[in-house]
Write a structure and sequence with these properties.
The complex is a heterodimer of chains A (415) and B (299). Chain A is an alpha+beta fold. In chain A, 19% of the residues lie in helices and 36% in strands. Chain A has three domains: 213 residues, P-loop containing nucleotide triphosphate hydrolases (Rossmann fold, 3-Layer(aba) Sandwich), CATH 3.40.50.300; 84 residues, Elongation Factor Tu (Ef-tu), domain 3; 104 residues, Beta Barrel (Elongation Factor Tu (Ef-tu), domain 3), CATH 2.40.30.10. Chain A has a six-stranded mixed sheet with strand order 2-3-1-4-5-6, sandwiched between helices. Chain A has a six-stranded antiparallel beta barrel with strand order 7-8-14-11-10-15. In chain A, strands 16-22-19-18-23-24 form a six-stranded antiparallel β-barrel. The longest helix of chain B is centred in the N-terminal third of the chain and has 16 residues. Chain B starts with 8 loop residues before the first helix and ends with a helix. The chains are: A alpha+beta (415), B alpha/beta (299).
Chain lengths: 415, 299
């Protein structure tokens, strides 16, 4: 089974929830009772169309204000793939939700209102998807019905967006443009008769055709140890299994591995998934590994292949996205959670703030507020084993925890 | 050919979450209702820790209004797997005067469970409660985190949730707080049923079509039982039905069905145009019914 996670980004009133509702409706994923509820509420509000946004805006406050204020997850499937859509709000103040939604996604949909074209918010949405190195981005030019399905308008927006693409950091990101009307259903699931000038795929056709191997992040295998399994039963008296998820590549029985931080070498003896032995542990599988030698490995340690070592350092510089209402200050201490490993960290230097709308940087920054993005150097109380984010999406990322409130206050991408 | 039976992404994610719970918390517990989702959780937990035993107990908050088939099943499963089971009863909370039994036509003990659950969490000092809730079930649940922090009063602050990024789960809490953990957050109803079929997991008989005494009210099929208030003019019928979701007899409606085995149940779910919680009487109370109960500490 293939599962594709998609993040959505759009400004208020760009019709993001309507687009998702339309996808659900046209793939017949909305059940009768949900549809009835939508029909009932649409009628109460006096609409002469179905308000699909009601299918996704789940919290009372959102229904009252008619906006999306938190990441919601929506599920639907076709014969080919299962889809998980992270519906992320598009307000300026909700950058953190966009980063959150995008962090687990392999594809993204950026919505543009055809009447408004590329606006400051669009820059921001594109910047974040690019920062998170989402491989596949669809730019859905929505509300085409309100501009008479004008090819001219569509091409002008496309060209504006292409100018933006010139500024991006991650150049290999694949970008596809599709003219749609979420409200009326044009080019979402079904091909539109209103856009004879558009010969490309509909949104769903495009998603269906995506090659999962091509949108996944492949690098070198990293195996962070989550948990040590020691059954201490008669049958498994000496069993010491290292439980964890394999990231980036594959590991096989017989592979020579190094345990970090001890740098002790051994070989993979067995790979278990439940009670069954496997020759190879595939990428993203949650396996249990045993080693030929009895070496000391515990949670937070990492097994990697000999000759494929990550960087082992007590200091790193990263682009961080700050997510807390309390400021981040130079000199403050936080917990860096890097995968399953936690270390204490000090903010050594805030180099500069980055405007996520491509309008430049602010030098001389001593503090960061909610939704700020910045280049920061951290000093750690012990070394971690990392790769650069551009080489390894998992082993190059981390979250920041507040030592007082325990909250997740930021996310980082190691440069 | 290469064996790919270990690459189901949802299964791998759930196993990862279970291991994070065992590593990050002192006293986790798996909330077990005897329903298909919690039975699926037990299988996933077995997979996460094999060859060791599941390193935490199961707990059932028993309303006393369960289907007897579910309770029999629960006790058998626990015995077969050698697991520890804790049971706490809503009846005890009623007897102690902590909650008041609802009365009337739509009375149910479903929302009373919350008090019994919060008391049990305090009694055992559980810091993580694992549950089988899924985001596709209900709109408010679609916003739920995998590690969802509850305050001292067991309450959910939906406007102020911790962001969850990448695979990283932040289980750091203060004393008195606890975390609700949802390992199958990203599964759909069909995913669960397909998994039960593929893994040949045993489930209680009420999930399969059987003859049952029922009556019709508000377009739903209610079980005829001592626990369910029934008007005199609500006629008792005997019909072939099954349950898609199993809660209390007083809050779970049946569906007409001829599906007597797992393959035909999966097919039925595939073809279905009604959502799972469409048969939950407790959700029909109002559009925001679930969000309201969640804020109060409901699972």
């Amino acid at each position: 089974m293939e599962v594709l996670k998609i993040a959505t980004a759009g400004s208020v009133d760009d019709g993001k929830s309507t687009l998702i509702g339309r996808l659900l409706y046209d793939t017949k994923s909305l059940t009768t009772d949900k549809l009835e509820a939508i029909e009932k509420t649409s009628k109460q509000k006096g609409y002469d169309y179905l308000d699909f946004s009601l299918a996704t805006d789940g919290l009372v406050a959102e229904r009252e204000q008619g906006i999306t204020i938190d990441v919601a997850h929506i599920y639907f499937s076709t014969a080919k793939k299962s889809y998980i859509i992270a519906d992320t709000p598009g307000h300026v103040e909700y950058t953190r939700n966009m980063v959150t939604g995008a962090s687990t996604s392999q594809a993204a949909i950026i919505l543009i209102d055809a009447r408004k074209g590329v606006i400051e918010q669009t820059n921001r949405h594109f910047f974040i998807n690019n920062l998170l190195r989402i491989k596949e981005v669809v730019v859905a030019v929505n509300k085409m019905d309100l501009v008479d399905f004008s090819e001219e308008k569509y091409n002008a927006i496309k060209s504006d967006f292409q100018t933006l693409m010139g500024k991006r950091d991650y150049q290999d990101q694949r970008i596809t443009f599709i003219p749609v009307s979420a409200l009326k259903g044009d080019n979402v699931v079904n091909k539109s008769n209103n856009t004879p000038w558009y010969t490309g795929e509909t949104l769903l056709e495009h998603l269906e055709a995506l090659d999962m191997a091509a949108v996944s992040n492949v690098g070198t295998p990293r195996f962070p140890v989550q948990y040590v399994i020691r059954p201490k039963t008669e049958e498994f008296h000496d069993f010491r299994g290292f439980a964890g998820k394999v990231y980036g590549g594959e590991l096989s029985v017989g592979d020579e591995v190094v345990a970090l931080p001890s740098q002790t070498k051994s070989r993979i003896k067995d790979i278990f998934f439940y009670d069954k032995k496997f020759q190879t542990a595939s990428r993203r599988s949650s396996v249990t590994i045993t080693l030929e030698d009895e070496i000391n490995v515990s949670r937070g340690d990492m097994l990697v292949k000999v000759g494929d070592l990550p960087t082992i350092e007590k200091e790193f510089t990263a682009t961080i996205s700050w997510m807390d209402s309390q400021q981040l200050n130079a000199g403050s201490k936080y917990v860096v959670q890097h995968g399953v490993n936690k270390v204490l960290a000090k903010v050594e230097k805030i180099h500069h703030k980055i405007h996520p709308d491509y309008s430049g940087i602010d030098e001389d920054t001593s503090a960061l507020g909610m939704n700020d993005i910045a280049q920061v150097t951290f000093k750690l109380n012990k070394p971690i084993f990392y790769d650069k984010f551009k080489n390894h999406r998992t082993n190059g990322s981390f979250i920041l925890l507040d030592t007082q409130s325990n909250n997740t206050v930021g996310a980082g991408f190691i440069s | 050919m290469k064996d790919t039976s270990h690459i189901n992404p949802l299964e791998n994610e759930a196993i990862y979450i279970f291991r994070e719970v065992a590593a990050q918390f002192e006293k986790p517990v798996l909330l077990f209702s005897g329903g298909k989702d919690s039975i699926t959780l037990v299988r996933l937990a077995q997979k996460a820790f094999w060859p060791a035993k599941i390193p935490f107990p199961l707990m059932h908050i028993d309303t006393g209004h369960n289907f007897p088939e579910t309770i029999e099943f629960r006790d058998r499963l626990v015995k077969e797997l050698g697991l520890e089971l804790i049971v706490r009863n809503v009846q005890d909370s009623i007897d102690a005067g902590k909650v008041k039994e609802e009365s009337g036509k739509y009375s149910s003990r479903n929302s009373l469970q919350t008090t019994t659950l919060l008391d049990a969490i305090e009694e055992f000092k559980f810091d993580a409660c694992i549950g089988g809730a899924r985001r596709d079930e209900e709109k408010a649940r679609a916003k739920e985190r995998i590690f969802s922090v509850r305050d001292d009063f067991g309450q959910w602050d939906e406007r102020n949730q911790r962001p969850e990024l990448f695979d990283m789960l932040n289980g750091q809490i203060e004393l008195g707080q606890n975390v609700r953990v949802f390992p199958i957050s990203n599964w759909t109803e069909l995913d669960v049923w397909s998994y039960i079929e593929k893994e040949e997991i045993e489930i209680p008989s009420i999930y399969f079509a059987h003859k049952r005494k029922v009556f019709l009210r508000d377009g739903l099929i209610w079980s005829h039982s001592d626990y369910v208030f029934q008007e005199d003019d609500e006629e008792v019928l005997e019909k072939m039905v099954r349950f898609r979701t199993v809660g209390d007899m007083s809050c779970t409606a049946a569906v007409f069905s001829e599906a007597t085995d797992i393959a035909s149940v999966v097919q039925e779910i595939r073809d279905s145009t009604i959502s799972e919680r469409g048969a939950r009487i407790d959700d029909k109370r109002s559009e925001a019914a679930m969000e309201k109960r969640k804020q109060q500490g409901y699972f």
